[in-house]
Amino acid sequence: MKENSESKSVPAREKKNLFFRRAHRVRSRADFAHIYGQGVRARGRHILLVATLSNHPAGARLGLSVGRKYSPSAVLRNQAKRVLREVFRHIRAELPAWDFIVIPLRAGKKLPPAELEEEWTSLIPKLAQKMNP
User: Fold this and answer.
1) In the prediction, which pLDDT does 99 show?
2) Which has more confidence, 17 or 37?
3) Around Cβ 118, how many Cβ atoms within 10 Å?
């Protein structure tokens, strides 16, 4: 019987909180427009974060913007979205209650999850400083 490698690395108690539910997503066009219009930006090597304070009870929410500028290949754009969602699931508990839009940079490059996680958490203080000058 084949065992899932993920089940070995994450204890069952911690896995329970790693869902990416509908409440954790920025979905409506109005929400995206609000975040782009009112949000602050911070750029890293791999991602550009746009964030604004959230009044949503679910806490941190994620919106993804991966356009053809990133890659003309839908396969590569979808891979980038999967990696970004996975990183968000793992660090969501540590994030402030903000709405985030994440835009991957460096078209055609594979996004390393460990570096993305580190970069995302390092951009949070920059965003906080811009929100509260």
Assistant:
1) 92
2) 37
3) 15
Encoding tokens for residue 133? 């000058």
* pLDDT band, residue 133 (cuts 50/70/90): low
Place of tokens 């996680």: 117
Crossing angle of helices 113-131 and 74-91, in 10° steps, is 70
Distance set, CA 84 to CA 2, 47, 91, 94, 132 (Å) = 27, 9, 11, 16, 26
Distance CA(108)–CA(128), nearest Å, equals: 30
Least confident of 27-31, 58-62, 96-100: 58-62
What's the CATH number of domain 20-131, 3.30.230.10, 3.30.300.30, 3.40.50.2000, 3.40.50.720? 3.30.230.10
